[in-house]
Amino acid sequence: MSAPGPAGPLDFLLTGAGQLVTGDPAAGEGPLGLVQRGAVAAAGGRVVYAGPEAGLADLGLAAATRLDAGGRAVVPGFVDAHTHLVFAGDRADEFAARLRGVGYEEALAAGGGINRTVRETRAATDATLEASAAGRLATALAHGTTTLEAKSGYGLTTEDERRSLEVLARLARLSPVEVVPTFLGAHLIPEEYAADRDGYLDLLEREMLPACAPLAEFVDAFCDRGALTVEESRRVLEAGFRHGLRGKLHANELGSTGGATLAAELGCVSADHLLFCDQQEAKALAAAGTVAVLLPGTSFLLRTGRAAPVQVLRDAGVRMALGTDCNPGTCYSESMQLMVALACVHGGLTPEEAVLAATDGAARAVGRGGRVGRLAPGAACDLVVLAGRSYLDLAYHLGVNLAATVVKGGAVVAGEGARPGAGP
Ligand SMILES: [Zn+2]
């Protein structure tokens, strides 16, 4: 159980949580650190107490913001570990074609797919690009996401990649959501470099990284069939490391292409997708401490019937995280609630694993383990009061927004009790 923090002025106090998911196994029952009749207190935006209401006796109960959860469940704010938030246009027609049987790789070969979004993103005005990304970020927040990783990768020129990261920097200032920016200039070799792949990678290394790295925390590459090879991905990541970025990798989504092994070898913070992952690859990821970011919305919508091999990852002791993969091609959703549900009903996770993966696991996948994604002393006071009595509702009560109130850093930023203008 968390010990009450020093008595002093609180700026946030929540009581009446019928079920409080702390994410801190030391604070309550089971892997979720579950507390019945829980309370959370915060000062300076950080949790000073998360535990049974009864443990609050030593703390002064005056706080600028007081919430009564009214017996509903409270979970840590969701962390979305993988999004492609900045893009223009949409690909609803390709989605419909896929429902009629056209494959994702076929669409890519026919001039659709990522290349099409790259053309539309380059053509968009700054205002259009920013407004569309801001709208998606606001939707994510309204659904309980308080920290979100977001990639560039639809620009694929120095200017357009930098522009996407500048959009993210502005959104980070304007929105309550903590935005984690990733440089994904290696999303694809752009069409104009199809005959000169090394020429593009030279440009990326010589010009794009110096321009973009100051605006990013992570470097990522799409290491897969039809995208970058293992050696090309290695080159990009190692160049990113020289600019002080940490590594992520789109790995083993479309086949066993060596991405998982590369992510482990390079000590990437996360390897994402992993629809193909054997025991050896899983052991390598576990040994490297690389988090597996599962994207169940994407695997569900690709309609191949394949999900990441959760039992293999579990057996190897790989830590799991969830992300929406929010993008116009393979999964257009900002809802981590939906991802928790799909991770359970399609992906084979237990509800407890899925909730942990959407919070603490995802926090680790974006380099913020212990700082966000759990309600424990010292962590950011980011939480969601659910419109339900149990965290199980996240897997069970489908297709509705269960985020009744969203709190970021001890302030109500969305849902019931949010002040107008508190959101983005
Ligand atoms: Zn992705």
Question: Could you outline the blueprint of secondary structure elements for this entry?
Answer:
Layout: E1 10-21, E2 34-43, E3 46-52, E4 63-68, E5 73-76, E6 78-80, H1 92-99, H2 104-109, H3 113-123, H4 126-142, E7 145-151, H5 158-174, E8 178-186, H6 197-212, E9 218-223, H7 230-242, E10 246-251, H8 259-265, E11 270-273, H9 279-288, E12 291-294, H10 296-302, H11 310-316, E13 320-322, H12 336-345, H13 351-365, E14 383-386, H14 393-396, E15 403-408, E16 411-415
Parallel strand pairs: 1-4, 1-5, 6-7, 7-8, 8-9, 9-10, 10-11, 11-12, 12-13
Antiparallel strand pairs: 1-2, 2-3, 5-14, 14-15, 15-16
Helix pairs in contact: 4-5, 5-6, 6-7, 8-9, 9-11, 12-13
The chain binds zinc ion.
Zinc ion (ZN) binds next to loops.
Can you give a write-up of this model?
- This protein has helices at residues 92-99, 104-109, 113-123, 126-142, 158-174, 197-212, 230-242, 259-265, 279-288, 296-302, 310-316, 336-345, 351-365, 393-396; strands spanning 10-21, 34-43, 46-52, 63-68, 73-76, 78-80, 145-151, 178-186, 218-223, 246-251, 270-273, 291-294, 320-322, 383-386, 403-408, 411-415.
- The strands form two sheets. Strands 1, 2, 3, 4, 5, 14, 15 and 16 form an eight-stranded mixed beta sheet that branches. Strands 6-7-8-9-10-11-12-13 form an eight-stranded parallel beta sheet.
- It is 35% helix and 23% strand.
- The chain is globular, with a radius of gyration of 21 Å.
- The protein contains 14 helices and 16 strands.
- With 424 residues, it is α/β, with parallel strands linked by helices.
- It binds zinc ion (ZN).
- Zinc ion binds at residues 82, 84, 250, 325.
- The site of zinc ion has 4 residues, from loops.
